[in-house]
Write a structure and sequence with these properties.
This protein is of the alpha+beta class. It has helices at about 1-20, 25-30; strands at about 40-45, 45-50, 55-60, 65-75, 85-90, 100-110, 120-125. Strands 1, 2, 3 and 4 form a four-stranded antiparallel β-sheet that branches.
């Protein structure tokens, strides 16, 4: 009888702790409703903390309010056009024998944080003479007849 009562008490305490006091992930990132209800937030570009890519911060302002948000600049070819511009890309084109490059053109899918994005961008990569294949593993590894 005591064990059942203790178990009931434990379950009640856990549900109170997680239900009333905790916020889910979506609520943590939302601004609190207790302050002013500014709707015209303006955000700057994501500025990496170290170097030209990686984790950093973006500053936002609205009326007299300012806030900093965490952001991340990718450390690959996408940093050329910014983290706030999202593009849709088709498959890579054929290899150009003169430049030994493949190209593809992306069209703007959406701009985040009112970013100033180009409508289309072109990206390039070098052509490879051979198609990459997966390395073949040893058959019947560890088995001997």
């Amino acid at each position: 009888m005591r064990a059942a009562l203790l178990l009931l008490l434990l379950v009640t305490l856990i549900s109170i702790k997680t239900g009333a006091g905790g916020k889910n992930k979506k609520e943590k990132n939302k601004p609190s409703q207790s302050g002013s209800e500014c709707t015209d937030w303006r955000y700057g570009n994501c500025v990496p903390s170290n170097g030209d890519c990686g984790a950093g911060f973006r500053e936002g302002s609205c009326d007299q309010q300012n806030k900093k948000m965490k952001c991340k600049v990718p450390c690959n070819w996408k940093k050329l056009f910014g983290v706030d511009c999202k593009y849709r890309f088709p498959s890579w084109g054929e290899c150009d024998p003169n430049s030994s490059l493949r190209t593809r053109t992306g069209t703007l899918k959406r701009a985040l944080y009112n970013a100033d994005c180009q409508q289309t961008i072109s990206v390039f990569k070098p052509c490879h003479g051979k198609n990459k294949t997966k390395p073949k593993g040893r058959k019947n590894k560890g088995k001997r007849n």
